[in-house]
Amino acid sequence: MAKLRHSNNGIVTLRQVADRVGLSRGTVSAVLNDSPAARAIPKHTKDRILSAAQELNYRPNFFARSLRKKRTFTIGVIAEEIGDPYGAMVISGIESFLSSRKYFFLTVVHRHNPEMLQQYTSMLLARGVEGLITVDTSVTQPPPLPSVAVAGHRRMKGVTNIVLDHVQAAQSVLNHLLSLGHSKIAFLRGQPFSSDSAHRWRAICDTGAELGVSVSPQLTVELNGDDSSPNLGYRATRELLSRKLPFTALFAYNDMSAIGAIRAIRESGRSVPEDVSVVGFDDIREAAYHLPSLTTVRQPLREMGELAARTLVERIETQKEYPREIAIKPELVVRESTAPPRS
């Protein structure tokens, strides 16, 4: 076995890994970079190379790889916010897939400021990203690079939209509440700047009309502000309660607003679900551990992030035709926050 000699700066080189396994640098490079040439290399040889690289703590030279292939292996992620549970779970899925394919990603946060969105997009392009993923961001013009939009709804050249079936989501929630015996249902509507807001509200109104559920303006409050805490739902529900109109169920725009709504309902002297049933949307991590645990519409947020990254990388590497839309099916998760109304 060849004796290991580190380079002057202490970094293990590709040649040293090749010497350890007694193979050519080209063979070792093909395996470590997962290039198409590696498909012809036997599995036991690949395993030997990967094992040697791990033993020697070999780290590929990213810049050499980029210069050799004339690529940056970098993706730009444009998000409304990364501290909220929705964005965090989507970006977690993006990171998981991109790291497995040895891609970097740069994330910018625009907070629905059009000037910041334009500025940050230009910065990502200047840094040589090969594609873009947007999260809860309304794309207004065709991007210059392959792009995937999570919660995107505008059909646009070059963009694959990953969208939830909001009609099915609305049907599952309203049918669930009707089956429990609820007829007076209140609603917390999403902020206008949220990508899903208009489509989800349209689905609720259309489904309500089909099922005979009254979607009353007097029992509807729109969330106001960009705070990602339960405070928005808390304030909106307090306004709803101040109208002194009876309701036995509340369908909130998302789980965070539902958690805030439950606090406001309890402060008013009512209980959940005995007096008011509450349904959320998203199925964030906190939903199952809140007291009571939250009935909600599950979006597979981490899987949506992985799907977005996989779709974009395949477009970049294979130049295949891209799908204009990928539909995701929702799932109603029934927990403790819904029950039949009091007699």
What can you tell me about this protein's structure?
With 343 residues, the protein is α/β, with parallel strands linked by helices. It has 3 domains: 14-68, Orthogonal Bundle (434 Repressor (Amino-terminal Domain)), CATH 1.10.260.40; 71-163 and 301-327, 3-Layer(aba) Sandwich (Rossmann fold); 166-299, Rossmann fold. The protein has helices at 14-21, 25-32, 43-55, 62-69, 85-100, 114-126, 166-180, 197-211, 231-242, 255-267, 301-318; strands at 74-79, 104-109, 131-135, 147-150, 159-164, 185-189, 220-222, 249-251, 277-282, 295-298, 325-328, 331-333. The strands form 2 sheets. It has a 6-stranded parallel β-sheet with strand order 2-1-3-4-5-11, with helices on both faces. Helix 1 (14-21) crosses helix 2 (25-32), helix 5 (85-100) packs parallel to helix 11 and helix 7 (166-180) packs across helix 8. Mean pLDDT is 89; it is low at 1-8.
Attribute tags:
343 residues, alpha/beta, 434 Repressor (Amino-terminal Domain), Rossmann fold, 3 domains, six-stranded parallel sheet, six-stranded mixed sheet, 12 strands, 16% strand, elongated, disordered N terminus
- What can be said about the biggest beta sheet? 6 strands, parallel
CATH homologous superfamily assignment of the largest domain: Response regulator
How many domains in all? 3
Quickly count the helices.
11
CATH architecture of the largest domain: 3-Layer(aba) Sandwich
Radius of gyration over alpha carbons?
25 Å
- Mind telling me the CATH class of the largest domain? Alpha Beta
Strand segment tally? 12
Mean pLDDT: 89
The rounded distance between the terminal residues' Cα atoms is 82 Å
Question: What form results from the Cα inertia axes?
Answer: elongated
Classification by helices and strands: alpha/beta
